[in-house]
Specification:
The complex is a heterodimer. By secondary structure, chain A is α+β, with helices and mostly antiparallel strands. In chain A, 24% of the residues lie in helices and 17% in strands. Chain B has 20 helices and two strands. In chain B, strands 1-2 form a two-stranded antiparallel ribbon. Classes of the chains: A alpha+beta, B mainly alpha.
Amino acid sequence: MDKPNKNQPVSRRTFFGDTLRTLSALGLGSLVGFGARKATSEELVWQLDPDKCVQCGQCATECVLDPSAVKCVHAFDVCGYCKLCGGYFKPDAKSLDTAAENQLCPTGALIRKFVEDPYYEYTIDESLCIGCAKCVKGCGAFGNGSLHLQVRHDCCVNCNECSIAKACPSNAFQRVPASKPYLYRGVQRKDFYPEK
Amino acid sequence: MLLKNKTILLTIFIIMNLASAAQLFGIERFPRPQFESDYQQPRMTSPDPRAATYEYIDIAALLAALSVTTFLILKKRSRRGVFVMMLLSIAYFGFWRKGCVCSVGSIQNVAYALANPDYAIPISVIVFFILPLVFSLFFGRTFCAGVCPLGAIQDVVILKPQRIPLWLNHMLRGIPFLYLGIAVLAAVTGSMFLICRFDPFIALYRMGGDWGMVSFGVALLLVGVFIARPYCRFLCPYGVLLGWLSKFSKYHASITPDECIQCKLCETSCPFEAIDVPVTEKPVESQTVARRRLAIILIVMPVFMLLGGWIGSHLNKPLSRLHPTVRLAEQVNNENAGRIYETTIYSRTFRASGETMEQLMAEVRQIEHKYKIGGWWLGMFLATAAGMALINLSRRRRQTIYETNHTHCLSCGRCFDYCPRHHALKGDLVQT
């Protein structure tokens, strides 16, 4: 142990206290320094890879928000504008009109609009969409797969651990820098990253 | 029967593969039409995430809240001020920020970053982890007092605090060590963020969540009416770290502003039972007996630690079930062996993915190996914690005044008002 200071004797208690304090500070510093080897100044957000998604429907139920922050988006560039849309109509639809009993979407969030014969435009009312992926499954199975799911960042509360990500059977969720939050289908992918 | 099962599985497999292949490569079954009308294709919208500046606002808010609370406790000695800080914390870190990211949960991000160099941990998370600890090292657990939204919501419901038996208190105080150990293990192995999953109050702050966690939160608050801050004292893993550092804190809040006059008025003022009373009677046992016991504990400690580590490492199989891949492998194995007929979305996705059983089992073995090593650390950590508790019990206390227990005191400032010296110095005692 050090020799006590002549003028102001250091008690054993103070000495131990100071030593432990310094050691704790050093320990904390090194712990954080080691952990922060690849620290980023950017916030991370959750992203859904539509190519990994298997449309299990759990995005609608697992999110801490109700309705879910995962919503269906539409890549118009990829869409075939089909009259018989696998994402819009139930497989056993009696007639190809907008009657509710024919629609696959449980909340009527997918809106069908006539463009010109025989083409129809499909848009999503995100305030109604619950992210159940029924339309995504239908579109992928019978159409071009232009309907796909994305985490909408105006809704997402960015939990430290996304509960959908934990439940996702195909590991389609990952954390990405907040400057590139979306992963869109089709050619628009590159165009629609917000420029930062 | 088995054959039929296999055929069905094969069919499902083929169908799913076809469906996913079509999507994967974006097969254009129907090419984009050439419109004759002047149809304008709508643009996709990309709502932005929270702007990055808000992250710095959060950091600034944390620093400001910690500084103000520390100032209120150490300089102003104002319980009322701390109460206001708690309400602000509930409003900002709770309802406005929806309780995420919090310092308690940031343990896992740091642990995960330590084990996975690929994970880029955001600066804000590091700051949320380190700032309260640094403050604790110098000023005690002022973070718990007025900044932590989890603590604040419990603190405002303390109405009829009851004392609980000492032995029970000591037992329950061990739970956070276990929770911390397992949570860090789960984070390091990339299994799950246990602390976030079982955060009891976040559902209240988000005003929604699964009913299990909501009722757990409400139950804790109801218990909290009688047993003050049950989560903070008997569960919070971050409290373990804060407590360690607070024990060595240089300027910790004290009950009396200057001297203790042994009036005993503060004795029962602490709802958290964090006030150490002076040792008045002479120790029952002689010094030599106590010393010998301490020596025995110190000698037995390494054995104890090894034993703990050995037990921990042998618990790797049940513990590794925290990892989803291990649970998946179990499910698939059970299905293959015909023990379970119902498939889950996870096993179906696995079969559709084309990954082989060997690959899956190799992954599982890797995870179990991680848990084996992690189990050693967990066991040793818990054994050490238990040993330290024993040493603390057998240490001779030489306390002469009523003083806060620096490890367990949450610096809430309730005891200040019970101290006559506090009022004498403030000059609000009525002279008669």
